[in-house]
Amino acid sequence: MYGKTICTIVFFVFLIASYSIYMGAIDPTPYFSQLQSQPLNASSPCTTTTGQPLRVFMYDLPRKFNLAMMDPRISDADPITAKNLPSWHQTSGVKRQHSVEYWLMASLLHDGDQEKEKEAVRVLDPESADAFYVPFFSSLSFNTHGKNMTDPDTELDRLLQVELMEYLENSKYWQRSGGRDHVIPMTHPNAFRFLRQRVNASILILVDFGRYPKEMANLGKDVVSPYVHVVESFTEDVVVDDDPFEARGTLLYFRGNTARKAEGKIRVRLEKLLAGNSDVHYEKSTATPQNIKVSTEGMRSSKFCLHPAGDTPSSCRLFDAIVSHCVPVIISDKIELPFEDEIDYSEFSVFFSAKEALEPGFILNSLRQFPKEKWLRMWERLKNVSHHFEFQYPPKREDAVNMLWRQVKHKIPDVKLAVHRNRRLKVPDWWV
Question: What is the pTM of this model?
Answer without folding.
Answer: 0.85
